[in-house]
Amino acid sequence: MEANAAQEHGPAHASPNYLLIWVVLAVLTMAEVGVAFLAHIPKRVLVLILVGLAVWKALLVAMYYMHLKFEPRRLWLITAAPLPLAVILVVIVLAEKW
Amino acid sequence: MSNAASATMERGTSGFGVYNMKLGMWVFLLSEVMFFTGLIGAYIILRFARPEQFAQPGAVLNVPLTAGNTFLLICSSMTMVKAFAEIERGNQKGLKLYLVLTALIGMMFVGVQAIEYYKLAHEGFVPLAKLYAAHGRHGAEGAVLGGPLYGATFYTMTGFHGTHVSIGVACLWFTVYKAFKGGYTKENYGGVESMGLYWHFVDLVWIILFTIVYLI
Lengths: 98, 216
Fold this sequence. Notes:
The structure holds two protein chains of two kinds. By secondary structure, chain A is mostly helical. Chain A has one domain. Chain A contains five helices and no strands. The termini of chain A are far apart. Chain B is mostly helical. Chain B has a single domain, classed as Cytochrome c oxidase, subunit III, four-helix bundle (Four Helix Bundle (Hemerythrin (Met), subunit A), Up-down Bundle). Helix content of chain B is 76%, strand content 0%. The chains are: A mainly alpha, B mainly alpha. At the A-B interface, helix 1, helix 2, helix 3, helix 4 and helix 5 of A face helix 1, helix 2, helix 3 and helix 8 of B.
């Protein structure tokens, strides 16, 4: 069982700089909070900036901490499967407003 | 069937190039994506339908406190991935250290969330409309303080996330226990990796929730 496990895990992946990603995530979080309280930015622009920062942070976690960047492309297909549905839901909801 | 063959079937490599336990965790997490997307979608619909019931960031919620809590969760993600990196190198001591740190930080996150709930409820920001009325808060004053929908959506989304974190903490302590019993090796670390995937996902969801619920 132990001998099989090494093969099951596949080839070793590159080791990202986890500390650097942690620093980037912390800085982006501070930037988010700072931007959120800037009163002179129009609401729509503010929302775009905040969502952009959140997506950036989420991608960093998924790519480097969850190692998606180093996984086989076939796994990416599964991972991407619910995303169009999520986007459709949010876009349709937003279309009701604008 | 021999034990070795049985083990291979249980933990064998899937057609997706990853071992079955990991594939199973990914599929589970994708179902969770749909779950949280449903919650967030409902929140967006309600917020657009009744904007007067939702307060501006910082008017009701303690954003600095939650920003600190967000930072805690980011720290726990870092310690979790470090635990995984350590066992990949076969370092048992590092694995145990980072797993314990992750579990402790996870508990701190839940603790801060409990304190936040307590303070909010004390101020009359509660999840149910009837309790709102009991606290003398109604939608009429919602532009500043928020109305019943605000409390209901806030506690539903953050509550479900907090439940996920709490379950994650329990699983982390089990992983710690197994690590101290020597259950993971350089060749067999699937449990740590799957635990890590779940924990990072919880962090990822919070990153989105923090922006949508607290900042926008």
